[in-house]
Structure formats: C-alpha cells, structure tokens
Amino acid sequence: MKAQVFRGVNQLCYEDIPVPTLKPDEVLVQVQVVGLCQSDIKKIRYPLYEPPRIFGHETAGTISAVGSEVTGWQIGQRVAVMHHIPCMRCDYCLNDNFSMCDTYKNICTTAGFAPSGGGFAEYVKVPGHIVQNGGLIPIPNNISFEEASFVEPTNCCLKAVKKAQIAPGQTVLITGAGPIGLMFIMLVKYFGAKAIAPTYSHPALKKL
Ligand SMILES: [Zn+2]
Ligand SMILES: [Zn+2]
Description:
Blueprint: E1 2-8, E2 11-16, E3 27-35, H1 38-45, E4 58-66, E5 78-81, H2 91-94, H3 102-106, E6 123-126, H4 128-132, E7 136-138, H5 145-148, H6 151-163, E8 171-173, H7 179-190, E9 194-196, H8 203-206
Parallel strand pairs: 8-9
Antiparallel strand pairs: 1-2, 3-4, 3-6, 4-5, 5-7
Helix pairs in contact: 6-7
One zinc ion binds next to helix 2.
C-alpha cells in the first residue's frame, strides 16, 4: 500500500509499505478521508518524534478486514476511527486527565512503524483495546466520510465547551476563527449560546 512516511524533520516520503497484518482482536480500515491536524504539522516540522512514523489521526474509512475474534463489526462498514482510547480505570482517568493515561499513550492505531495514528496511509490497523472500547464509530448513511473525519477534532472542542459550562443565553468570545474556532462557533450555537469571534487573518491567507 502507499503511505506518507515521516522520515525526519520536514521529510515526508510517499512510500510502498506492507498492509498491516491483523491479530485476532484487530480491525483493518481502508482510509477514505483523513484530516490534517495542526498537531500533525507540528510533529513534522519539529524534532518531537523519532522517525520513521506514519501520522494522521482524523480518520474515516471502510472496514476491509476483521480479526477472527472480532464480533459486531463487518467488512464494508463505514467508520470513524479514534486513534486512542483511555482505560477509564487508572488514577489519571478517574480525575479526567485522560491524555496522561498509560493505555491512552501506548495503544494507538497504526499503519506501520511506531504506532502514531497511521491515517496518512491506505490502510490503518485498529488495536483490540480500541475496537472493544468505542474507538470505532459507525457512520450513518447520511453522513459523508469528510464530515465523519471531523469527529476527533470536534470531540476536542466539545471537551472545552463542556469544561467552560456553556449554557443557553450566554455570549461566548472565541479568539480566532481558524478551523477549530469555526467548530467552536458551531458548538456554542448548538448549546444555545451566542458566539462572537474577531476576524482572524492567517499569515498564509495574505499570500492569496
Ligand atoms: Zn488532531
Ligand atoms: Zn487510564
């Protein structure tokens, strides 16, 4: 399969690599759409991670193979893929610090090399822990793969909206209407509040 492999800072290579093989509790997803997160750009531009890796964690696709012990999932099903899922049992999880959880940090979807998301490849492998704990989300027929690929970033925004206890009738200032800011505007409105966002000019837009 083809994959975009991170080979070092600012070095991405379009390579042929083997399709991941499955353990009995794993699921293989053919990637249809993957979002490009600001954090992916950061991981590519700065020496934060040892290469080689395949990034990409805002993935939506079609199940193309299931391990022999997997129940409840079929080939051909459309799914949004969460790249990691906390254990919900450790001290970190019990205090809502999910991103500090060992399970969350160490079990991740992969297309090969050190597990790092893997969405920037044709196929991504979903570990058993993620399959069994809500990390595959069925996509309803009226939702496109493009829309489904927004589940992960929307979830990040939702966390903040809940933490800030946004409620009907409030007015919320959103400082910056980039992709995440635009999602915040929609969520804030969804929860019945009014959003104010200053116009934001990204340096890249000035070149257009
Ligand atoms: Zn992201
Ligand atoms: Zn945990």
